[in-house]
Amino acid sequence: xAKTKTDxxxxxxxxxxxxxxxxxxSSFVPALNNPxxxxxxxxxxxxxxxxxxxxxxxxVVQPIFxxxxxxxxxxxxxxxxxxxxxxxxxxYLSLALIIEEGLPLADxxxxxxxxxxxxxxxxxxxxxxxxxxxxxxxxxxxFINTAGIGAVSPGVDISGHNARPGDxxxxxxxxxxxxxxxxxxxxGMDFATGLKSDCAPLNSLVADxxxxxxxxxxxxxxxxxxxxxxxxxxxxxxGVSIRINEEAIPVRDEVxxxxxMLGLDPLYVANEGALVAMVDANDAGAIVERMKKNRYxxxxxxxxxxxxxxxxxxxxxxxxxxxxxxxxxxGEPLPRIC
Amino acid sequence: MRLVSEFRQSELVGGLVQNIRRHAVKxxxxxxxxGGHTVAIMKFGxxxxxxxxxxxxxxxxxxxxxxxxxxxxxxxxxAQLPDVIIATFGDMVRVPGSRSSLQEAKAGGGDVRIVxxxxxxxxxxxxxxxxxxxxxxxxxxxxxxxxxxxxxxxDREGLNNYYVLSLHKLCxxxxxxxxxxxxxxxxxxxxxxxxxxxxxSRPWEFIARDYGIPCVxxxxxxxxxxxxxxxxxxxxxxxxxxxEIAYRRGVTPDGNATAIKIMEQVFEPxxxxxxxxxxxxxxxxxLRPEFQRFDAELNFDFDxxxxxxxxxxxxxxxxxGVKIPPDCSLFRKAxxxxxxxxxxxxxxxxxxxxxxxxxxxxxx
Amino acid sequence: MCLxxxxxxxxxxxxxxxVEIGGIGRKxxxxxxxxxxVGDYVLLHAGYAINIVDQKEAKExxxxxxxISQLMEQx
Lengths: 338, 364, 75
What we know:
The complex is a heterotrimer. Chain A is built from 9 helices and 13 strands. By secondary structure, chain A is of the alpha+beta class. Chain A has 2 domains: 11-152, CATH 3.30.1330.10; 168-325, PurM-like C-terminal domain (Phosphoribosyl-aminoimidazole Synthetase, Chain A, domain 2). In chain A, strand 2 and strand 3 form a beta hairpin. The longest helix of chain A is centred in the middle third of the chain and has 18 residues, at 105-122. The radius of gyration of chain A is 21 Å and the shape is globular. Chain A starts with 17 loop residues before the first helix and ends in a 13-residue tail after the last strand. Chain B is α/β, with parallel strands linked by helices. A 5-stranded parallel beta sheet of chain B has the order 2-1-7-8-9. A 4-stranded parallel beta sheet of chain B has the order 4-3-5-6, sandwiched between helices. In chain B, strands 10-11 form a two-stranded antiparallel ribbon. In chain B, helix 2 (35-43) links the parallel strand 1 (28-34) and strand 2. In chain B, helix 1 runs parallel beside helix 10 (222-238) and helix 6 crosses helix 11 (257-266). The radius of gyration of chain B is 21 Å and the shape is globular. By secondary structure, chain C is α+β, with helices and mostly antiparallel strands. Chain C has one domain: SH3 type barrels (Roll). Helices cover 27% and strands 41% of the residues of chain C. Chain C has one helix spanning 55-74; strands at 5-13, 16-21, 24-29, 41-45, 48-52. A 5-stranded antiparallel beta sheet of chain C has the order 3-2-1-4-5, with no helix packed on it. Chains in contact: A-B, A-C, B-C. The interface between B and C is large, with 55 and 40 residues.
């Protein structure tokens, strides 16, 4: 049978037959090259002693390519970061793709390349995977699921339940970049900006922080729902209140402007390369200094404190010195004209 | 940001606050008509800076909140038609109508797209010649001229698949209805700054003249609002009632003649239903007969179904300033931001949403 | 009903313009403010310039605030 060179993903690519095998061998394996993946067994067999962290996430971002990243980079960073947020050292990822029939092969290869590069920067291996193809219209170009395993060193206990009154609240960098960068590409929004998504693997940043202090109580990355939602989650989980200072929160001019124009609040806009930490106040200074030396923590700052009274509440001191309650996000932040 | 951050400088707040305290010796209730002012007051915690003699009450200036279920149902019915793309501002998407919402219509297969501008809706029409694009026209005199301009543009281009469902409303008639109802006792009105940028400050003169209520046209930054409250307090202290413009960089007495002309070229006043007020004559805008071919109401066969207004929902009274959200039996129980019953809870400017988020609030 | 922000006009082509707001660029329509010039600040609402910002008045308003502030410090 003559070999047909195809430039689009076809249903046959997902059916496990020759086309699927060719795709895996010619695209995925070389790109994500590692001994475990190359075995192409049904499962990867891994040896490990000690505690493991295990997480999974699915990625459905639209559009799949955006300034500063793409769905592939997002998929790796998202799972690497989830592991880092419990203080784990990310090791192995699984990668499952659900591809819409008709996706240009070039687009898929671009995403795979991005996955490869991000995995390399993060120091993780993709050891197992899966590919399915669905009929046109049944997946918005590409959906990705990743699961990740990481190693948790003895004595590390970082959790949303551990915030204590008196803790300092540290933010690693400017908020709102990812959400606004993606929004700028959406049809109907269409504004020009040099803004890039802040999508980044934060495991090296977390490792730096852990090297300086063993009194880091919580770590979380404020993704969907933004910083406001994340702080509310932690306040509720830990039974504490959190008070933040608007002036201390870094926000890029373009994010501020876009939010003003669209009636959005940066506190509720998604981030993919930022983290918030609740740490013993005595260690806060040293942690922030160390974070600033890491490329992903250059704008790190203490933005507030954890308190005992009014558990579950998040309050912000505005630039004017007044205070307001910061609630959790309800629904999606929709641009408005009012 | 130019011309924004300068009007948020915290160093300049103290002086204005002190002035307000000097002037506001008598107890007074001011209404901020416009939802945008409600949001700014909440966002910057301005109530915390005011002396106890002053109370601020929110008015019905939230075009989303005052959209009647019957009108919302029309938009939802249109969304369910085949080959129709609904283009709407984000504000409207989650508001519940009698049975559904635009968001639910979208989940049910309707093509509902959020746009920032009618310019984006026009682009949708050009890019989808086989479909009809219906723009849901919500908003007061700030927005109506932009929608009118889009219709003129569509006309110029010969676009035959662009339509507008006009739910636009006018401010002065509803303020008059509010004052005539005698339900609210006001000593001052903070007038909407961007509506006034279009229509000027003259349309508010009847309020000062016939009802003896001081009016100040205000901008939206915290210093602007504090300045306006100061100017109102000064008028009250002196027993005056005039219309003053605090927002001088954006508003003139006569407004923007071009914008007014374009609005009046395409739209004519018509009766409109306001949630909480019922029908207010001459308070809405409908497309003039010569622009009928752009009118979504006339060009589609759709059935909005019977109008149901949720019993117990006090949005109407809240909008008129006679009740506050905690007075409503549904508040926080059946009606929450996740499951809103009325628009005052859905809209980011709605009083109920504001009370829910900031209400028994402010940690001093 | 009122979300409008000051935007600086950077380019004009008939009634279409490009405006800049703190690093963000957007196209805008000048159909409602045909007399606007490059360099003017306009109030941008839903993609249209609804009025031209009077920069002189802006400066004067800020001067009034500054004066009130100084009087407070002295008084």
